[in-house]
Write a structure and sequence with these properties.
This protein is an alpha/beta fold and about 140 residues long. The protein is built from 4 helices and 6 strands; from the N terminus they run βαβαββαβαβ. A 6-stranded mixed beta sheet has the order 3-2-1-4-5-6, with helices on both faces. The structure holds magnesium ion.
């Protein structure tokens, strides 16, 4: 699948650290023949890719739409439809389907969200869905608060 990861608070903390197990998880996803894309509402984050040496894992780096998610893909030059999205921002996950992750702020070695993301991806590949409550099916309607 074409798997799109958000940057801020998904793989990158406020303190500029990578979420624990990000690279290990990227490698497992590549071993499973997925493609990894990085996108951000703050633009193309090449500086993050370089600083954390992620270039070998990713197939593309793009700016992420922050509204009208499907409609804006072409304008932002995203060349393919994301098949699975990982983000701390629930709306975009509901639009494309994927995993909502609790925001990651500071280095803490107790964070196991990357393992959970990997398990949900495997569930989805095998069953087309996941029982995990952080999984969101494509087109999920969010409750209005
Ligand atoms: Mg984010």
């Amino acid at each position: 699948m074409k798997i799109f990861f958000d940057v801020d608070y998904t793989i990158l903390g406020l303190d500029d650290t990578l979420r624990p197990n990000t690279k290990e998880t990227f490698q497992k996803l590549l071993d499973d023949r997925h493609e990894i894309y990085i996108w951000s509402g703050m633009g193309e984050r090449w500086e993050v890719i370089e600083k954390h040496d992620l270039g070998g894992f990713v197939s593309g780096v793009y700016e992420k739409p922050t509204e009208h998610f499907h409609e804006k893909l072409e304008e932002l030059k995203v060349p393919c439809e994301p098949e699975f999205v990982i983000d701390d921002y629930p709306e975009i996950v509901a639009a494309f389907g994927g995993v909502w992750v609790p925001p990651y702020f500071f280095a803490k070695n107790t964070d196991q969200e990357m393992d959970r993301i990997y398990r949900i991806v495997c569930d989805f590949v095998e069953h087309g869905t996941s029982e995990d409550r952080q999984y969101r099916a494509k087109g999920t309607v969010l409750p209005l608060f």
